[in-house]
């Protein structure tokens, strides 16, 4: 396995999976994952056939599909049939809270409970067995910072997220925390040590000053205390109905954007894309116990646009287009010879390892095989 | 590309790296996560056995709501693979589901090799031979298997009947 790939590093703080000795826990762990984004359910919703997805996932799927079908069973569904699944949200939250302790209990070796294990000589494995790693939280997971729930649990939570960040810095030894790196998602440059946290927050635009964890808290406080209400228009928290994009004029689209204090720059396709994305974000934000503030939603929308703009600037879109031409494809093939050879060897080595493991079946089953 | 699509692709890569299906490997271009290279081994006990076939996958902004474009780099002889390497596979077109990931796509392509659908031929000759002359079909497949061991940049001489080699991509070999 190619553990050196730069893109893998960004998920290195993933929580460890349950060991193979606990298939029932592995199954439970899988059952709270959305089958579209493959991450833990956020604002779970159920469609007519009974399948459940993150609200944002299924809404954005439906917005792209020409004939709208359930991604799992292909039953015909409509956006109007989407219903909040409060029970699943509760189960998901409960599972997240319980997961860490269950991981500890399920470790075959008497593990170093909640303490950090001694740093591994080669901090290579993304699936290290240390029991203290946090499941990374997505941007829309600001629930822990939700001020309407400043219970002891949630404040603990914030602390924990922050502290796991500093642990991260200590564990990665080769790179100094002051080195700059590029975020693999949005390509923004920042101190390497702050990338995992940045990704967990869903790639907010990087400001020059250190983004202290208090920033977001302050945002929340502002929104909920309505201190900044002079700025925040009275937005009705009702689902937005999509306009007919074929008929809508740029002015119509700008009016919608204006209503939610969103930027109105750009031509019609840009405006349309912004409206579409906003409606998905806004409507799915209504499907959870822990909605995000409108300013957090705007920041997310902005981050998406910045990410796309960067790709364009760096010629990434162009590279994809280029691959569609005969010459571009031939050039890509010429340049990728070594990479293909490496991939081929990877399979060969893996097969050899598998054959070996099959011989010592019993011994390997308890150990996680990479 | 949107951060959602990138995040999903990183997750796909992680899954592919930590729990790879047999005979499959793939990896995104380090500078551009929208472009992936992959290698598929031919399924055992089929004419494609021992073949090591190269492919590229390109993803759009709408992934996983839209399927990736999959294209063989290696020269293939298969009823559902065009001579330029593009393939005709329902799950990559109208049967696509956003629940599929890269591992699932590559696994499907791998199983397509020995489970062709001659009803919708992309390579008429291969489809014809598959139906009428399986021996000859297998012989032709085996030449592509042998060719797959070499650098595909080398021009592979094939029976002229192998068809529109004009659209194929033989390119001068670069010293590696």
Task: Describe, in plain words, how this protein is organized in 3D.
Chain B: Residues 4-150 form the UBC core domain. The complex is a heterodimer of chains A (370) and B (176). Chain A is mostly helical and 370 residues long. Among the domains of chain A are: 16-106, 2-Layer Sandwich (Herpes Virus-1); 249-323, no CATH class. Chain A is built from 14 helices and five strands. In chain A, a hairpin with a 5-residue loop joins strand 1 (44-46) and strand 2 (52-54). In chain A, 27% of the residues are buried. Chain B is built from four helices and four strands, in the order αββββααα. Chain B starts with a helix and ends in a 29-residue tail after the last helix. At the A-B interface, helix 1, helix 3, helix 10, helix 11 and helix 12 of A face helix 1, strand 1, strand 2 and strand 3 of B.
Which CATH architecture of chain B would you pick?
A: Roll
The description of the largest β-sheet of chain A is: 3 strands, antiparallel
Strand content of chain A: under 5%
User: If interface size is counted as residues with C-beta under 8 Å from the partner's C-beta, which chains form the largest one?
Assistant: A-B, 64 and 60 residues
What's the CATH topology label of chain B? Ubiquitin Conjugating Enzyme
């Amino acid at each position: 396995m190619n553990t050196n790939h730069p893109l893998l590093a960004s998920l290195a703080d993933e929580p460890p999976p349950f060991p193979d000795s606990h298939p029932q826990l592995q199954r439970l762990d899988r059952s709270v994952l959305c089958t579209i984004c493959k991450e833990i359910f956020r604002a779970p919703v159920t469609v007519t056939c009974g399948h459940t997805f993150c609200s944002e996932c299924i809404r954005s799927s439906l917005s792209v599909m020409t004939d709208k079908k359930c991604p799992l069973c292909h039953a015909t569904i409509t956006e109007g049939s989407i219903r909040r699944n409060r029970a699943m949200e509760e189960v998901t939250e409960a599972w997240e809270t319980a997961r860490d302790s269950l991981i500890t209990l399920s470790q075959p070796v008497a593990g170093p409970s909640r303490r950090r294990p001694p740093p591994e000589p080669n901090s290579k494995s993304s699936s290290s067995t240390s029991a203290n790693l946090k499941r990374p939280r997505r941007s829309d997971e600001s629930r822990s910072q939700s001020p309407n729930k400043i219970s002891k649990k949630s404040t603990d939570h914030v602390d924990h997220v922050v502290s796991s960040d500093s642990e991260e810095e200590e564990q990665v030894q080769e790179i100094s925390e002051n080195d700059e790196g590029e975020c693999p998602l949005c390509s923004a440059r920042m101190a390497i040590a702050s990338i995992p946290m940045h990704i967990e927050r869903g790639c907010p635009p990087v400001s020059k000053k250190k983004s202290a964890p208090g920033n977001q808290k302050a945002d929340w406080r502002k929104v909920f205390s309505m201190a900044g209400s002079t700025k925040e228009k009275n937005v009705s928290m009702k689902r937005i109905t999509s306009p007919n994009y074929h008929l809508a004029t740029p002015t119509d689209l700008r009016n919608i954007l204006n209503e939610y204090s969103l930027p109105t720059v750009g031509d019609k396709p840009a405006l349309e894309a912004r409206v579409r994305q906003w409606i998905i974000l806004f409507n799915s934000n209504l499907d959870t116990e822990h909605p995000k503030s409108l300013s957090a939603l705007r920041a997310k929308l902005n981050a998406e646009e910045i990410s796309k703009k960067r790709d364009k600037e760096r010629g990434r879109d162009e590279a994809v287009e280029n691959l569609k031409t005969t010459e571009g494809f031939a050039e890509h093939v010429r340049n990728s010879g070594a990479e293909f050879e490496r991939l081929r060897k990877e399979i060969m080595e893996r097969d050899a390892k598998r054959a070996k493991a099959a011989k010592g079946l019993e011994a390997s089953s308890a150990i996680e095989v990479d | 590309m949107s951060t959602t699509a990138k995040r999903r692709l990183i997750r796909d890569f992680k899954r592919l790296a930590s729990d790879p299906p047999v005979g499959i490997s793939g990896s995104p271009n380090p500078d551009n996560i929208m472009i992936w290279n992959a290698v598929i081994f031919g399924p055992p006990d089929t004419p494609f056995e021992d073949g090591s076939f190269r492919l590229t996958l390109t993803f759009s902004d709408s992934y996983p709501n839209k399927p990736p474009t999959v294209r063989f780099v290696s020269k293939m002889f298969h009823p559902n693979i065009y001579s330029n390497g593009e393939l005709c596979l329902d799950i990559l077109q109208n049967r696509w589901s956003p629940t599929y990931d890269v591992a699932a796509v590559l696994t499907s392509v791998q199983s397509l090799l020995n489970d062709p659908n001659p009803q919708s031929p992309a390579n008429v000759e291969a489809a014809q031979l598959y139906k009428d002359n399986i021996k000859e079909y297998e012989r032709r497949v085996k030449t592509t298997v042998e060719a797959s061991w070499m650098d595909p940049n080398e021009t592979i001489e094939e029976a002229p009947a192998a068809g529109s080699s004009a659209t194929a991509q033989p390119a001068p070999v670069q010293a590696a």
